[in-house]
Design brief:
Elements: E1 7-12, E2 15-20, H1 30-45, E3 51-56, E4 61-63, H2 68-72, E5 99-103, E6 106-108, H3 110-113, E7 120-124, E8 128-130, H4 142-150, H5 153-162, E9 166-167, H6 168-173, E10 179-181, H7 186-198, H8 202-215, H9 220-233, H10 237-244, H11 246-257
Parallel strand pairs: 2-3, 3-5, 4-6, 5-7, 6-8, 7-10
Antiparallel strand pairs: 1-2, 8-9
Helix pairs in contact: 4-5
Length: 266
């Protein structure tokens, strides 16, 4: 099995465990996302692998989301994040095998957003989920499309616009995750779920994912494609203005320099 820097892979029979291990916060740069895409493509194409479990190393962070150091150094919002989109699977529409996310800590920004594209989500009871993008001069993309469809609109807007944190229990309350467990039981629960999925016919699971994909009223593929094309073609003028503003880099630079951002609105 191919090896990847800062990604720990464990093959347990038909289960592939993928651990993000990138200090300090398992943050995801474009290059790291491309590596994760190669991992998920390998999982997709290996007939002997049937379930993937994605988690983070350590107890504090599942992932800090998009690597702001890369952003401050010029990495773009519409960078090449790889064959599967951000984090390797969010746009891999031909991945018809179950993906379980075992959230071991903070799921921040795009690290929260990616979960909206997972099949199953288990969380340690101390995990927290939030979107800080507005405080660094940009806006969430996946969450802007999907979160108002999954949560009551006022709550979704609060999470999107204020960065309000949702606890694991709140996520469970709003049916955004499957189960909350003690931290030392997280991977055991994920493996038990994976074993349960192995009892199902592989073609049945693939047919379910295909059916959900093709009939999903959210129509994520078209919405997300429209957003990215709209940015590039100028059809989303306010989104494009935000990305081209000095504020879009000021937030990342302020984070990198350990200071409060100075917004100009331009």
């Amino acid at each position: 099995m191919e090896t990847f820097e800062n990604i720990n892979l464990t093959r347990n029979g038909a289960i592939l465990e993928i651990e993000m291990d990138r200090p300090k916060a398992n943050a995801i740069s474009a290059a790291y996302s491309r590596d994760l895409g190669r991992v998920f493509a390998m999982f997709r194409d290996d007939a002997d692998l049937r379930v993937a479990i994605l988690t983070g190393a350590g107890a504090k962070f599942f992932t800090g989301g998009w690597d702001l150091n890369g952003v401050a150094d010029g990495e773009e919002y519409v960078s090449d994040f790889g064959v599967g989109g951000f984090c390797g699977f969010t746009e891999m529409h031909d991945l018809l095998k179950p993906v379980i996310c075992a959230v071991n800590g903070l799921a921040v920004g795009a690290g929260f957003e990616m979960l909206l594209r997972a099949d199953f989500i288990l969380a340690a009871d101390h995990a927290a989920f939030f979107l800080p993008e507005v405080h660094i001069g940009v806006a969430p993309d996946i969450a802007t499309i999907l979160l108002p469809k999954y949560l009551p609109r006022p709550l979704a807007m609060e999470v999107l616009m204020t960065g309000r944190r949702l606890s694991a229990q709140e996520m469970l309350q709003y049916n955004l995750i499957n189960k909350v467990v003690a931290p030392d039981q997280l991977m055991a629960e994920a493996r038990a779920l994976a074993q349960q999925l192995l009892k199902a016919a592989p073609l049945s699971l693939a047919a379910i994912k295909e059916g959900v994909r093709e009939t999903d009223s959210v129509d994520f593929r078209d919405s997300y494609r429209a957003l990215k094309e709209g940015i590039q073609q100028g059809k989303w003028p306010h989104f494009k203005k935000m990305l081209e503003s000095s504020d879009a880099t000021e937030g990342a630079k302020a984070f990198q320099e350990g200071r409060e951002p100075k917004w100009t609105g331009a």
